[in-house]
Amino acid sequence: MEYNNQRNMLKVVLLMMIMMLGSQSEAQLNSDFYKESCPSLFHVVRRVVHRAVAREPRMGASLLRLFFHDCFVNGCDGSLLLDDTPSFLGEKTAGPSNNSVRGYEVIDKIKFKVEKICPGIVSCADILAITARDSVLLLGGPGWSVKLGRRDSTTANFAAANSGVIPSPASTLNNLINRFRAQGLSTRDMVVLSGAHTIGKAKCVTFRNRIYNESNINPSFAMSRRKSCPAANGSGDNKVANLDVRSPEMFDHSYYKQLLGNKGLLTSDQVLFNNGPTDSLVVAYSHSLRAFHRDFARAMVKMGDISPLTGSNGQIRHNCRRPN
User: Fold this and answer.
1) Number of other CB atoms surrounding residue 52 within 10 Å
2) Which residues are catalytic?
3) CA nearest 68: which of 296, 304, 270, 241?
4) Nearest CA among 131, 136, 130 for reference residue 148
5) 270 with 173: CB under 8 angstroms?
6) Which runs of consecutive H residues, i.e. helices, occur in the chain?
7) Which pLDDT tens digit goes with each residue over 107-117?
8) Distance between CA atoms of 78 and 265, rounded to whole angstroms?
9) Phi and psi dihedrals of 297, rounded to 5?
10) Rounded to whole angstroms, how far apart are CA atoms 76 and 23?
11) What are 241's strand-pairing partners?
12) Tens digits of per-residue pLDDT, 28-65?
């Protein structure tokens, strides 16, 4: 009797182990996920992104930022792309993204083309991951093997997007470190991912306080930025300036060189080089484009692993703006 009980218990334990291993393998993302089910995926995405970036180089930065904002709120699940519905508020109008994040129409175009060749196969979350990589590549940055197999969220989280999980342009260094650490990203990951600001632009409202009130800023740089960003709140808020003044349309390491001269446009940029623990990383990346590109690619893969929906969780949305 006791022997039979032990055998039954062993069977239960083995069954549980098999189920756990199955769920773990199911949750694995891999670069060949669509190799058989949608072999033309990368070509279709690259073609649309290429046209969008050729038409407006800033769009490369915008598509990269879409992926960052999506992953930092409940993981890389495509929830950022959802419009409001009667049952939930989307994340698009939350503070960090409202009138700031852009590029949704490019994702719509990609999804439309992908659905024509591979209907119901490719998630919006994975499209975001691929467009981020392609945008960086097209602007002279590194490439990496994009891990795929994410599924899409059926809801969005306005409150979470507004909770501070996405660091603001006025962030302190400690806040940046803590916000990235909460996502499983190291201080090095944070510094190298901040290097995405080697492309793109920022609005006057996000850097006004820095150019008028902060002391750790190059005086001539501050004066040049003040010409297009008036001191008065509400005046010229939406006027933009390049985050990288040297080569704003190239994914190089001049962003870090800029920080060495106290020419970071945002407070959250300059805190990376301000007599603190991340100074040495900024110096290292300012000296080596190769190191920057290598570590950026690794950090992007790591960020793409934040809490994906896989297996039977979520869905493959037919339209990235709404649940099925």
Assistant:
1) 24
2) 69
3) 304
4) 130
5) no
6) 2-26, 41-55, 58-71, 104-117, 124-138, 158-161, 173-181, 187-194, 204-213, 219-226, 254-260, 267-270, 279-287, 289-303
7) 999 999 999 99
8) 29
9) -60, -45
10) 19
11) 202
12) 899 999 999 999 999 999 999 999 999 999 999 999 99
